[in-house]
Amino acid sequence: MWLVFLKELKELLRDRKTMFFMIALPIIVFPLIIGVVTYFSGKAIKDIESKVLTYSVVGEEFAPNLVSQLAAAKEFQRVDLKEETDLSQWVQNENADFVLVIPDNYGDNPLTNGQVVLQLYLNDAKLNMVEKRLSQIIDEIALSNQSAAFTQLSLTDVQQKALLDPIIINKVDVADQRENWGAKIGGIIPYLVFILCLQGSMIPATDLGAGEKERGTLETLLISPIERHKLVLGKFLTIAFAGVTSALVTVASMAVWGIVLSQGMAIAMVADFMGAISLLDFLLMFLMLIPVAAIFAAVLLSLSIYARSFKEAQGYMTPMVMFVIVPVILAMLPGVELKGGWAWVPLTNVALAIKELIKGTMDYVQLVAILGSTAAIAIAALGFCVYWFDKEKVLFR
């Protein structure tokens, strides 16, 4: 078995495609993609924030003060509008970024004018800063009018606050920063780890089963004095090693890039969050991924052995991605927690446990159910793989 394992491992390390999925993808490519997306997203938002917005006004005679403040603002540029113009079409044709319609009851005294409703025509399907910028000017005028009205009514500060907010809810969040961030991003991490673990196993599994058939080397291997179940175990260990290595590299890359980003970009919040995740938590994540990698290895090798060619094996393995994604999506659903029956559902329980470890709320007793159920599935899948490899009608289809 070990002889087969070492032979397959040497061939695995010579395969550049496998090394790319195992090492380069989690260490360099994924962080690079995330970094590029973050950079261009930030740049796009910055460009939108600095863009001068064009506007038109209807009913300017009712609010000379507001119109003059808009004209004085550097981030706005007025575009004259003809009478009886279709305002929606005017904005749709991009003649202006927005049109502000001022009603005839506009005034400084809300006690006599009542509530003033300004109509804003804009294309809100686009990312824009219209409402935010406009609110900065209008809110200031509204607050001034409001304050003047309160003074006219001779209301004290306490009465003014009570009228503005008769009842308020003062939220006291008992969750710490780690739990808050863990709840938000903890569901995405298992998705990436599982997919990378599967990708890391898929290429060697294809090569060690269907690849051997296609090259005509399987027959040579079968007439060797090595027992058939040891051949399967050697191949299984090679594929599982690739998957575990991929998982280990992913978890290590996640930890290192988190620390580097937080230190390099001086993001104290990220540094505190990464610092709160202990080495034990990362170790437990890795340990839980070992039976997961074993399940992937056994199932992928069974499919590869059954396939007649490399191409056919890839066709069988591609739907495996869906079988991996569904349990992770279940772990993201509201109300699904690592307790009761969910702790025994393979893959979903590991995804939930990784999320809990990141949040810092892990119930370590559940590790018995997690490791027990995933290890049982892995052993059953490996048993089937050994049985499958012993069938002549499967090997020589």
Automatic annotation (TrEMBL):
Keywords on record: Membrane, Transmembrane, Transmembrane helix
Transmembrane segments: 20-41, 236-262, 282-303, 315-336, 364-389
Leader peptide range in chain numbering: none
Pfam families linked to this entry: ABC2_membrane_3
UniProt topology in membrane: Multi-pass membrane protein
Main location: membrane
InterPro entries to which the protein is assigned, alphabetical: ABC2_TM (IPR013525)
Keyword presence, DNA damage: no
Domain ABC-2 type transporter transmembrane, chain residue ranges per copy: 17-381
Keyword Lyase part of the UniProt annotation: no
Compartments it resides in: Membrane
Single GO cellular component term: membrane
MF term (GO), any: ABC-type transporter activity
Protein name stated in the entry: ABC transporter permease
Protein species of origin: Alteromonas pelagimontana
